[in-house]
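Ex. 9. Protein: Inorganic triphosphatase.
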Amino acid sequence: MATETELTLRLPPGRNAVFRRFIARHAGEHNGPVRERLRRIHYDTEDVSLARHGLSLCLIRQDGRWRQCLTRRGRSSRTPRTVEMPLNGPAPGLHGFAGTAIGKTLAKAVGNHAIVPRFSETLIRTVWIVGGSSGRRIRVQLDQGSLRGNGRMFAINDATFALEQQGPAEALYALALEVAARLPVEPVASDPGARGRMLYEPAQAPAPSRACRLEPESGETRSGAFRLVVRECPRHLRANVPGILDRSDPECIHQARVALRRLRSARALFLRAQTDDAWTIIDTEARWLAGRLGAVRDLDVFLDETLAGAGTNHDDITALAAAIAAKREASRGELAAALTSSRYGLFLLRLTLWLAQDGTGKTAWNGFARRALERRRRALEKPPPVAGKEKKRHILRKRAKKLRYAAEFLAFRFDRRSVRRYLAPLNDLLAVLGRMNDAAVGRALLLRLAEDTPSLAPAARTVIARLDAMESRRKPQLARARRRLRHTSAFW
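Predicted structure tokens for Inorganic triphosphatase:
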């Protein structure tokens, strides 16, 4: 059962009128809107010690009065702890938190350092009260304004949904899903401090973002490890979207695909035997998005790596490359449309809500890690139950990826050096299989192109012949990589 009581969505610019009309219909004439001006000044030390301790301190001016708010967010806690108190003016009063548990953390974080204003928010807030289907009242607020600090500014256009009473949040989520079905929204952190700290990050072009190495504590439960893994996947995905839309680096597309694969692999690893209707929808949408990403990625690899590696540079090959480049341009447009659509925002929201559910895994390990890894190792050794060398290698590659992801997710349960020794030959195997898969994808692409455009058929046959020759040389590499992995001791 869901227990989160607050959710924030970023609304697209210029679509607030649609949001206002939708919420007004649900709220009714007696429940809003109420408009107010709000100013918040966020404090920290120069070395952001409060943020490193999971704390956020801000001063709020509302209705002509000041108050201070101290929030603590823990890694495992879903609901942040917040303490508020009134102030006589726009200056923090840290002594007011003395004697409280959160005050002790604050004192430790501040130490002998001075706290200074880091950034500020200026907002116009519109508030409605909506009655949920379960009878619970939902506070909906639309915040429009700016975040300023370090000589920079970010625009704010967020909608926040919050239950006015503690308890199950299904009605809140249902309302948010209705909004996401109408507008291309994106879930964002409710903590403005997370975005405020971005004001101090170096301004640079979007760059590829890799999955963060997770370090669960040695005593972490099975469900806790699962949560750490899967919560990294949406961050990994979304961090690469700006680079995809900017077309600054093809690696961003690859990393976004990796994020989706890691998400699906983690769910299959930790919750293998569980049925989940909500996940079925998420998995379908993840496959849809992966398909859009894959269409562009395959063409990127063919043009930038496969075709160049084939060593052909005749005029007819240039025409072939131009035709495929046109296909890539069309696929890029389809991908950009997908990433700015309501469907993508709805996928992110469903994933966010699914991650907020209770009961997403068992707590005890009871040999789970060793059994899961051994099951994937044995699957890799079995001959794929299909005909055709390319299909066999495709299944082999998928099985090897599942083993690698499982090893990465569960590495904290074992000796790190032993894990690295095992991953080295496994990654070598995946590299060989990856190059062979790229050639297979290129071969299929060329055959379709030759059928659709007969004038390009001679050039396509020339490249296919080169790819076939390269594959013959890689077969011994594949055999050596499999043999090396087979002779490497399993770390579990």
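Check your answer against this statement. The beta strands are 6-10, 34-44, 55-62, 65-72, 81-87, 116-131, 137-149, 152-163, 186-188.
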